[in-house]
Write a structure and sequence with these properties.
alpha/beta, seven-stranded mixed β-sheet, two-stranded antiparallel ribbon, 8 helices, about 40% helix, globular
Length: about 270
């Protein structure tokens, strides 16, 4: 029998999905997805970005460079405590507020990184994500932050993307994986790995404040990438480098597979392995 907490969280997930065209965790259809509509310039935008130990900082700091320039907006970093945390490469970050004390959010940002594994079965974090997603204008995942959204029940029936080494796990959350750098489905915007977060943040800016604002920010941060190598996607990288990277990722991807399977069972998503 489901506990009261599970019942409340299921209802919250259903509410979060109801306005975005996602089949609910009970399998009932919901209305057609509503596109993100531009927010009037005189209305402040409250941006809340989740931070956590062993995240990948660029999933946050790349989008932060864009979203901190969003006209008439505030960005707050959120975690369980306001104690400093370190990303998995050692960079220190200081949360602005506790998730338990956070009010409504217009734009919810969920980054990824190896520490994402711990969040996928953390009831306090998942409840926070589903609760704020229910009323947010936009939910923006970066890299494997999409898996956290999936564990929170937000990807069922959605098109989404994530890091190339984890895209195969999206089906465990009822999502359709899309091999694109940024994917928009209803109020969910997902960006692929790491640096794709900048592209995603510019897309979100255009949706919330208009194209002119997004273009001005792109110019401000001089975002005109000219990478020295055409090696940023497994379809273009040399096969031996892809194989080496997949082998290096194997311990983490094995853990992610196990976690994704448990999440699928909890969410009632049937996957044929």
């Amino acid at each position: 029998m489901a506990t009261r907490r599970e019942f409340v969280r299921t209802a919250t997930v259903a509410g979060a999905l109801a306005g975005s065209g996602v089949a609910s965790v009970t399998g009932q259809p919901t209305p057609t997805p509503r596109p993100i509509t531009e927010i009037p310039a005189d209305r402040p935008i409250r941006v809340g970005a989740l931070v956590f130990p062993r995240m990948d900082q660029i999933d946050l700091t790349g989008p932060f460079a864009v979203l901190s320039r969003l006209p008439n907006a505030t960005v707050r970093l959120l975690w369980k405590t306001t104690d400093p945390i370190r990303d998995y490469r050692g960079l220190g970050l200081i949360p602005d507020a506790r998730i338990a004390d956070t009010g409504p959010i217009d734009l919810l940002v969920i980054p990824g990184g190896p520490g994402q594994e711990d969040l996928m079965e953390d009831e306090a974090v998942l409840s926070f994500v589903t609760d704020r997603a229910a009323t947010a204008t936009c939910v923006f995942s970066v890299c494997t932050g999409a898996l956290v959204c999936g564990a929170a029940g937000l990807l069922r029936g959605k098109r989404a993307t994530t890091h190339w080494a984890s895209v195969q796990f999206l089906r465990y959350f009822g999502a359709t994986s899309v091999d694109e750098r940024v994917v928009v489905d209803g109020k969910l915007v997902s960006a692929a790995g790491l640096t794709a977060g900048i592209d995603g943040a510019l897309r979100v800016t255009a949706l919330l404040r208009g194209e002119a604002a997004a273009k001005a920010i792109q110019l401000d941060i001089q975002y005109a990438p000219e990478p020295p190598f055409d090696c940023g996607h497994p379809n273009r990288a040399p096969a031996e480098i892809v194989a080496r990277q997949r082998a290096a990722f194997r311990p983490l991807t094995d853990r992610r597979l196990a976690t994704a399977r448990r999440a699928a069972a909890r969410l009632g998503v049937r996957v044929d392995d």
